[in-house]
Amino acid sequence: MENKNKTRTLKIRGQEVEVSEEVYRAYIRPIRAEQRRKRREWKCQKLSETGGYYVRCKERCDQCPYYLAGNNAIGNKLSLDRMADEGVDVEDNNADLEAKYIEQETQDEKYANLHAAISTLKPRQQEMVRKIYFEGKSQEEVSAAYGVTKSAVSHAMERIYKALRKVLEKN
């Protein structure tokens, strides 16, 4: 009976409010429950002694080798080591990083050679290549812009391809 008459102080929005013990407990209970839930979530889970299920670790984290190695326990349920132990094959997409780098360098070199070959074309031919391949215009749109037939643009592009092949074969 003594607890019901006891008053407590809660700080709500910066103001201190005196409340009864019953109101205080009702207010604090969900806050404390959330704090306990977070503490439980922080703890590692390890395989039970029988090995059939996982149990919450009861050891101190400051003595845990996992924690001392710089790892935290959050997300430990899905660790890569545990997945590997359970037979899940984790594929490393960056395993052949050197090959990807070499491929990118080769591609960059090809683009540089192509741009150098395009720069050897006449200004009007360069403009046609730019409009068709870099601006995404169709041969019909280019023919309308120059006031020529579509077949004239098509023949001009064939001459451009021939000139580019000749320059690129030299390199």
List keywords for this structure.
two-stranded antiparallel sheet, 171 residues, elongated, Arc Repressor Mutant, subunit A, mainly alpha
Provide an overview of this structure.
This protein is mainly α and 171 residues long. The chain has three domains: 1-41, no CATH class; 43-90, no CATH class; 97-170, Orthogonal Bundle (Arc Repressor Mutant, subunit A). Helix content is 58%, strand content 11%. It contains eight helices and four strands, in the order H-E-E-H-E-E-H-H-H-H-H-H. It has a two-stranded antiparallel ribbon. It has a two-stranded antiparallel sheet with strand order 3-4. Strand 3 (45-47) and strand 4 form a beta hairpin. It starts with a helix and ends with a helix. The model has no long low-confidence stretch (mean pLDDT 80).
